[in-house]
Records
---
Amino acid sequence: MSDGSVFGVYPPSPEFAENAHVDGARYAVMYKDSVETPDAFWGREGQRIDWIKPYTKVKNTNFNFGEVDIKWFEDGTLNVSANCIDRHMITRADQTAIIWEPDDPKTPARHITYRELLEQTCRMANVLKAQGVKKGDRVVLYLPMIPEAAYAMLACARIGAIHSIVFGGFSPDALANRINDSEAQVVITADFAPRGGKKTALKANTDAALLHCSDKVKCLVVKHTGDQTTWVDGRDIDLTAAMADAKPYCAYTEVGAEDPLFILYTSGSTGKPKGVVHTSGGYLVYAAMTHQITFDYHDGDVFWCTADVGWVTGHSYIVYGPLANGATTIMFEGVPTFPDAGRFWEVIAKHKVTQFYTAPTAIRSLMGLGPEWVEKHDLSSLKLLGSVGEPINPEAWNWYNTHVGKGKCPIVDTFWQTETGGHMLTPLPGAIPTKPGSATKPFFGVKPVVLDAASAAVMEETETEGVLCIADSWPGQMRTVWGDHERFQETYFQQYKGYYFTGDGCRRDADGYYWITGRVDDVINVSGHRMGTAEVESALVAHPKVAESAVVGYPHDIKGQGIYAYVTLMKGEEPTDALRKELEAWVRTEIGPIAKPDLIQWAPGLPKTRSGKIMRRILRKIAENDFGALGDTSTLADPSVVEDLIANRMNRV
Ligand code: WTA
């Protein structure tokens, strides 16, 4: 095999391959089946989960712009909560389903068995029913990383309600937008969310959000820290007390395979975040299958995905995939550096974690603090490591491999998206030799194609570069944008006709390995979190002193990309450091701390074409501190603007 990178090729060890669910030979056969005879392949794989009424149709999908329609297992019925809990009761009632590791290591961890998970989920489902929540209704979850978050997801699924989780780092405005867009009638929150020794006032944020929502919205509050909060009688309900009073059993509701399971808002290149809709049958099959095969999960393993349930990674690989497989899954409330930089490794040693799945940004920040934090802890339980969220740079890959995996654990670099429901490109640990920095090969059923960005021609040669599209549907694919099927088609199927467009660029090497090169649209990836530059821009221009703004990403050592904002002030406004701070705080309240610009440059003018279009390519170059080759600037209305921007650039590395 050709090298493809200076960092070498790492084949699966024979011992790992021997015990793995899928080895190299099997991957080849199964992959061929999955793309050549998808009905037969997925007809078999669909049996991973329990159906109330079995499906007779498997795949019914259309990628043609104007007629996009995606259905899997469409005439089958099921219940997702029953699949994640009830069906394990015969064999696993006393097995730990969730290990909850609190923010403060002095607070004892909790082991929640499948029996307890059933009881708590049922209690919460009964509380929701008592509030009038029915099949198809939306429930917004704005919660810390506590077991109640999993109970709430599964309680919604149990009664056929659609959950929409809003990450606890989002602001009241962002929360209100999501409640309103989904027309939710219930919000579930908690008093406070402890993280890294600090507390976020979730209830107070929810109070602020609800000022902008229908007064019919009810607020269920988990008493987590027990600290005092404000209380609106008639609207707020003590969920902890209500669950204690509720009946411990609730029958599950039969739903269709294509009934929505959840909505998850995510950033795109234009407009407001869109509500990505995932449905019940196909999503669960895909989450369960990828969890088992990519991570080579076996009975008795302890699986830890460090994501927050507010992101898709938490949906698929903390809750739905692992629980559908009857796994033991860890839910961690804290952060990697609290109370010290050894926390991840301490938790791995404490709970004897076998598979560990995290993001490159976390690895890079811990790498900077030195290997001694890792070496203090016994990591001998680990069998496999995973990475997700952005390309992993080979230096971080090597550190992860050497210091965490001790050279013995395969690393699965999983490329996927909120829209895809589960892994798209990933090494299978017993089957595919890895190369640091490459997400390697497609998962079963996934047909990647590389297109020329400009001409949309399919690049047939093995070794090539272009934009990454997918030629056919897979069961975990999103079905629509909530309330806006047109936007769904325009975003993913319009630019490259007949294909699903990922928004990412990629390179394919001589061995057919895929290397993601990053987003080709106006989406940036900050610490593995997706951010639309348009969102940050509209937050900035909403400030009374801001006339205009353009936001781009720039390379950042820890975060992968940082947020670089060019800001033109209203006439007569002074560009001061105080105003810079004010704008940072403004964006935090408009969107949330994750959207705070890292660098703000005062721009007397922005480079525009004569037709008034901002030339982002130039702004990106200046932000990257790479202004030697700005390309053609002759179409600019006023070329002198660029000189000023270069002279006053903020990123002088
Ligand atoms: C990026 C997270 C390279 C990519 C699951 C994608 C990656 C976006 C990888 C989706 C990876 C995710 N290698 N890039 N292994 N994983 N990405 O929706 O740009 O939050 O389009 O889903 O993250 O981010 P999202």
---
Amino acid sequence: AEKGYKAWLQYNEITDESLKAEYSSYFASLSVTEDSPILNAAVEELTLAANAMLGKDMTIYNYFTDDATIILGTYQTIDVEEYGLSADEVKNLNDEGYVIKSVNQADTKKLVLVGKTDKGVLYAAFQLLRFMQTSNSIDGLHHVEQPKNQFRMMNQWDNMDGSIERGYSGNSIFYDENGFTGDLTRIKDYARLLSSVGINAISINNVNVWEVETNLITSKFLPEVQQIADIFRAYGVQTFLSINFASPIQIGGLATADPLDAGVQKWWAEKVEEIYKYIPDFGGFVVKADSEHRPGPFFYDRDHADGANMLAEALAPFNGVVFWRCFVYNCLQDWRDRSTDRARAAFDHFKPLDGKFLDNVVLQIKNGPMDFQVREPISPLIGSMEKTNQVMEFQVAQEYTGQQKDLCFLVPQWKEYLKFDTHAKGEGTTVDSIVNGSVYDFKYSGITAVSNIGNDANWTGNTLAQANLFGYGRLIWNPDATSEDIADDWVRLTFGDDKNVVETVKGMLLDSWHIYENYNAPLGVGWMINQHHHYGPNIDGYEYDVWGTYHFSDRDGMGVDRTMETGTGYTEQYFSPNKEIYNSLETCPDELLLFFHHVPYTYELKSGKTVIQHIYDTHFLGFEQVEGLITRWNSLEGKMDDYRFNNVKERLHMQLKNAREWRDQINTYFYRKSGVPDAKNRTIY
Ligand code: GCU
């Protein structure tokens, strides 16, 4: 289990003699003249790795000496020109950027790790170790990097009773029995994992803030929140809390939480001041308000800007930020009501408020208009508000994509979202250029995501789901990185360099999203899942319910008409030409057809197949592909430790059962509805 726990920070002994000699010559001693928790963390990581990988005990000098082989620090203290770097090269980087350079001075080899700030140094250390763990020579290295997104955040959905909302990897590492676990070592190791892939912010409790958690912002719990924040700070990760909008009532003894009430405003101002006494660099609040029965400004006839601004004003003196979630929709819809469309909700609620939010409010928008389905179009709200800070929200937890039983490597999906052209400011206004703040010059921007870890020995339930956590961090650091490179790195770091293992696991990861999509709800229509827990098929599970997630299948056809002429008009929310592309049957891409259109089963897709035949074919195929995953994985027996091998094997068998159920229920359901037989005459029940 230890190998599962170490995830991609294995620091395996280097067995290649020449590489070992090369690395060892650099890892004799280290000089660092600055003192900060972050720099200490960098030194600690390098020391640990040198020990494990090379059996070297580095001498650490806290003064400058020419004897040192590794020179580490910020550009203010290192004489970078001495090592053939220009001062500008580092100075012009953003605050988290760094340079790693190896030099050969008078026959001694030296490595310089220089950051714009101490955070850059830490990221440099992790990158250097990645080079070594993936067997790259570091002679002649000159590596310059800086992150492309400002906020690279993680949202824990952990509750204080120890459970995790949508958690598939055991219980919380933070909380237990309405208190803290006190397992600071585990939290530190989580901080290391996050920091190693560049995550720089975390909210440590569920967006649904229940009774006990409401007290996290009180003196009852703040000392322990402070301890956690201290740990994360040393890894360059800023701590946030999710708050309950009704806190002034629940813990403040006030009669109202009305954002325009002076008493409420004063209460929050004092509350925020108190929090900053414990955590001077506290990040701010994440807020789920007026969403799925959570309290919010609507209750007082105020709007979201009133609510968010009230909190923003309290946080502003301390440079704190409010992440205000846009997951706001009618979750008590009458299924008979065909005019309400959940997909429209975020845009309809927030777009009219553009310009009304203070500049330390950030709108947090889910990647799609619904809820992290295997396939959705991009949320049309992204890029539509020129005057309002935005971050995009992903879900690393696989709520609707197999729950870390089924394999689903999400980096290729996220990559498609990031590279989607919104046309907000003409051609080339990709999502990544909006969320990195460059299109509208947002003060705050970036990406956030729901975490997928818990206290399982391997953090993520399925060991291969570690790749999503790793990939999330690496991709949002640099959205231009390819899915292939990210997967390749992850496999090498996690399982080592064996060519067979690398190619097999990489292939499995890269195929897995499409495989999952093949046996799931077809052509972008989404849902069709069991209620509440959201695993496994239940085609009409939500069809006559209140959640606004319908597929409208009848004997003739299926899909949701979201066109401007005959449907809900949702397509109107996109910029041209996307609005026309999605609105028209002729141009709507196959994979999203049923998200935007209601069509007959016999409708012919661009692929040349009918919708019904596509359903049959993909569902038979998806199941076979899962059988294929099992064969591929089994070929690796003996090539890794039993713990990780068996862990994945076991999950793949659960996936096979799931895929079989999806295949047979979907095929049977649509065969019975349509009466159209499978052209290939396979077994349908
Ligand atoms: C989904 C999920 C909920 C979660 C919600 C949210 O609907 O099923 O558990 O609370 O998203 O993002 O707020």
